[in-house]
Amino acid sequence: MNGAQMTPNMMQNTNHGGHELFDAHEVIASLISMLDQYQMYDQHIQDQELKDILQRQSSFVTQLYNTIVQSFQSGQDPAQPTQQYKMTQNNDTVYGLKPGQPKKPNQSVSDLSDQGLSAYMLGQTKNLATLLSMTALEMTNPVLRRVIADSVPNFIEMSYETFLYQNKHGYYQVPQLQPQDMNQMLQSYTTVQAQGNTAH
Description:
Helix content is 57%, strand content 0%. It has 200 residues and is mainly alpha-helical. The longest helix is centred in the first third of the chain and has 27 residues, at 48-74.
C-alpha cells in the first residue's frame, strides 16, 4: 500500500482469502446470469402459473443478491438477513411414465415452450444450489460463509417448486421400480446402536 494508512473500512475488507474472493465472484456472476435470463424467459412464458413461479423466484433472488453483495463488500452482517423461500404448491408428485414425442433442440425462438423454459429455470436453480454448497466450504469470512450456506436450502426449494410444476404437466416424469424391487432397496439397511454420549 506504499506506506498509506489503512482506514477501518479498508481493514474490514481484508478478511477474505483469495480463493474465497474468486468463488464469491463466481456466485455473484451466476446470480446476475440467472436474473438476466429469467427476464428473457418471462417474455416467452405462456402459462400464468409458471410466470408466477418465475416472478416469485426472481424477486427472492434479487433480495438475496443484495444480501450477498453487502456481506461480501463489508464482511459484516447485511442489513437484510437471509430469508427463507416458500413455495406455494403442495408436495404431490405424479409417478410413472407416459409415452410422448421424442425431444429435440429448438430450431428457432418461436419453438420455445413452457416445457423448455421451465427446464431452463430448473437447471439454473439446481446449478446454483450446487455452486453455493461448494462455495460455502471455501469461505473464510464467517458472515459470508453463513449467508452463502443459508442460501443453499432456498435454491433446493426453488428447484423442487419448478420440478413439481414440470411433473404436474408431464414435462418431468418420475419412473418407479417394481414394488418388490423398491421394497428390497428400502429394506437394505438397519440401524445401529449409538456409542458414547452422541444423543441427538
